[in-house]
Amino acid sequence: MTNDDYQVGGALPLEARNYVVRAADQELYQGLRGMRFCYVLNSRQMGKSSLLVRTMKRLQDQGFACVEMEMRDICSYQINQEEFYGTMVSHLVSGLELDLDEGEWWYRYAYLSPFDRFSKFVDEEVLGRVAGKIVIFIDEIDSILNLDFKDDLFGFIRACYNKRAIQHKYQRLTFALLGVATPSDLIADNQRTPFNIESLAIELKGFTWEEAKPLVRGLQGKVRHPDAVLQAILNWTGGQPFLTQKVCRLVCQAVGEQREQMLPYTLPTGFVDQVVRSHILDNWLSQDNPEHLRTIRDRVLSGHQDSQPLLMLYHRILKRKKVPADQNNLQQQLQLSGLVVKRGGQLQVANRIYASVFDRHWVNQQLQPIPSPSPSLPRWRVIAATVGVTVLVMGMRSLGVWQSWEFQTFDWFGRSRQSEEPDQRLLLVQITRQDIANLDNEYPLHDRTMRQLLQALDQYQPQLIGLDIYRDRPEGKGQAELIEYLKTRDRVIPICTHPNQNDPEGISPPPEIPDKRLGFSDVITDSDSIVRRHLLAMNPPQPSNCSAYYAFSSQIALRYLQNQGFSVDFPTAQQWQIGEIRFNILNSHPGFYTTSQVKGHQIMLNYRRSQEIAPTVTLTQVLNHQVHPGLIKDKIILIGVTDPSVKDYFKTPDNQEIRGLHIHAHKISQLISAVTNKRPLLQFPPWWIESLWIGTWALSAGLINWHISRLIYRGIASGIILISISTLSFTLFITLHIYIPLTPSIFAHLITNLCTVKHQTHKHQPNPNPNP
């Protein structure tokens, strides 16, 4: 064994000769071998990772299938459920060497929630494909503490154990959790926690003399009395694995560098004392590499909600040497720091090194009051910060900086509205895959079939028929008859498409159809491919094969409403007025859109909150006269293709993909319902109201820092403000259907807070800049 065989930090490789076998090794192995739920929750750098590696290898040698999930790698910043459970599935596939495409499997069941998909994967694929016993190791489990959905994972583990009674395959699956946390930190719900089932808590303790004997080999030939030297090392480290390996290495290095200086130290203890003091205790901050003591310090000072009680408890232990252990939450948190351990029912400092570094003098320094704060902020600074931040935030908004966040907020607000009934004024005629099969795979529909469909509908006198199918060229036989029919039927509205990046010329309408009966089918999507806006009209670009000014939805809705006796007017270039209802075009109130994004006449699309937008029938039903005339008479009929093989899908704010036919139906229903039923429109306030709103919340941060001196009260006040911003924004959207900027307001408050904050903390808060 050489100096390099003493590994300081990290998991020891399987072949490492200096691995120290402890009682925990056998306890964890036997527990998992008996398919018990095991957990190792302890302070950092106590050998949990090395224990995991060794135990996994022993189980694999016995025929177990094992997989490790490192939560620190999985739980990235702001990870959502989709990413979290999807990554866990990927780890299971690779760790268990399952022969399947996890991506294809994951999206095949996209209709299930991420958690249900993960449960299904374990049930069907893991337990279905792996025949033997399975152990899933979840390391760094404390990394999930900040996840909102962490309880679901522990509920899943408990459910797996509960299923053992009725599904024997679950008797082949068990789990092992490792990390720096207490069971109550991880989950407090007694109904879902797996820690109160038949579980086994593995306690990792420091090395005893008997356990540490393998470390003697590295000292042999370098020091006199290696057994005594190791005992002296253990007297300093208390058997703490990281420190024991580190001091062993330092002793070996010191022997080679200072052989002559060692002569005065005839006793092993004197030499070890000198090494520990010179290489660890003296200027410990600069010599703490790899980091260990600083990790403990940071855990005590900032790893808990309030460090003062922890420091007071530790001070009491230092003073009395021992304190009875009652396993309350405060004692557990102090134990997780590694600073103290439980021995014989008493809490005491873990070792002499800790006691020397974190002594009573150090504790008193952390408990010193902070100097009184400086006088209150100048008023001009608050006003200047408010105005400057408001201008900055509004400028960034006009450039679309906050757009992605505002998209998510807008969508979430919209999904929170109440459900509605389908619009009975519309009837959707869907051309399905079965319809095409019934016509001997006739697709695109022949002109003759199209004319038959229109005639079958026309005989029942619908108000209007919207044809969401292109007819810019002949399809099969019967074009002349179809064109002649379309020319004589004023109630039929065909479509065309303006030029775009994918089609520089656009798509022409059927021949000889006047412009006043045409509607363009162009749909505007946002940067995330979601349709949130309703394009009402626009001047066709030149040159263009499509000369329609009105959108397909606008053309149909305006004709329907005029037939109902409503007038149509355009008071200004930024307003439409139909009956008593005014539609404010986005050009004047763009909200979270930039000016360049609102070309033409656009409004926000207010989707109808219903499972189905309108009643639906199929092409076959219409041609076979299987549709009740009451569904057609005086209704708006929309005809479109819904065969999945025809790519005509659009994403909605509900995280769904719907057909272009249904997008047009939502748009038509929005316009008609706004005029006839006074259904609200989604709108943005004028820019000056948005500026005033954002400026108000920026000012609130300045006023908080101006009037409130204590940091904790500032935090509480800012928390109340942020909750108020969110609540008011949501309430205004739900009640008045006005979207008030939420994300910019929150950032305005936070930025102003930073600009006006003073160096001040609670007078009893521990010093944030501790001295060694």
Topology:
Layout: H1 23-33, E1 37-41, H2 48-61, E2 65-70, H3 71-74, H4 81-95, H5 102-108, H6 114-129, E3 134-139, H7 150-162, E4 173-179, H8 183-186, E5 199-201, H9 209-212, H10 226-237, H11 241-257, H12 268-281, H13 284-287, H14 293-302, H15 307-320, E6 323-324, H16 329-336, E7 340-343, E8 346-349, H17 352-357, H18 360-366, H19 379-398, H20 403-415, E9 426-431, H21 433-438, H22 447-458, E10 464-467, H23 479-487, E11 492-493, E12 495-496, E13 519-520, E14 533-537, H24 552-563, E15 568-569, E16 575-578, E17 581-584, E18 601-604, E19 616-618, H25 619-623, E20 636-641, E21 649-651, E22 657-659, H26 660-676, H27 687-707, H28 711-736, H29 743-756
Parallel strand pairs: 1-4, 1-5, 2-3, 3-4, 9-19, 9-20, 10-11, 10-20, 12-13
Antiparallel strand pairs: 6-8, 7-8, 14-18, 15-16, 16-17, 21-22
Helix pairs in contact: 1-2, 4-6, 10-11, 10-12, 11-12, 15-16, 15-18, 19-27, 19-29, 22-23, 24-26, 27-28, 27-29
What are its keywords?
alpha/beta; five-stranded parallel sheet; elongated; 11% strand; 29 helices
Walkthrough of the structure:
With 772 residues, the protein is α/β, with parallel strands linked by helices. 43% of the residues lie in helices and 11% in strands. The strands form seven sheets. A five-stranded parallel β-sheet has the order 2-3-4-1-5, with helices on both faces. Strands 11-10-20-9-19 form a five-stranded parallel β-sheet, sandwiched between helices. It has a three-stranded antiparallel β-sheet with strand order 6-8-7. Strand 3 (134-139), helix 7 (150-162) and strand 4 (173-179) form a beta-alpha-beta unit. It is elongated, with a radius of gyration of 36 Å. Residues 262-266, 370-375, 759-766 and 768-772 have low confidence and may be disordered.
